[in-house]
TrEMBL record:
Species of origin: Agrobacterium genomosp. 2 str. CFBP 5494
Signal peptide residue numbers: none
GO molecular function: DNA binding
Any matching Pfam family: dnstrm_HI1420
Name of this chain's protein: Addiction module antidote protein
InterPro entries per record: HI1420, Lambda_DNA-bd_dom_sf
Matches recorded under PANTHER family: SSL7038 PROTEIN (PTHR40275:SF1)
Domain of life: Bacteria
Length: 72
């Protein structure tokens, strides 16, 4: 995360999930998670577990990559 702000990342992930064809209902089907739980987890005050994030990322056809910081 370039900004280092987890809430911005979760918000963006939620927006992508809602924008996908079929929306949150489709994401729920693909992840095996309840639609209502996804709305809560990816909502304004959401605090999703890592496994939820990984499942949603996968359902969106995305990958999560970690890179060493150049100043580390």
């Amino acid at each position: 995360m370039a900004s280092g702000d987890a809430s911005s990342f979760i918000d963006a992930l939620g927006r992508l999930a809602r924008a996908k064809k079929g929306g949150m209902t489709q994401i729920a089907k693909e992840t095996g998670l309840a639609r209502e739980s996804l709305y809560r987890a990816l909502g304004k005050d959401g605090n999703p577990e890592l496994m939820t994030i990984l499942k949603v990322i996968s359902a969106l056809g995305l990958t999560l990559e970690a890179k060493m910081q150049s100043n580390a």
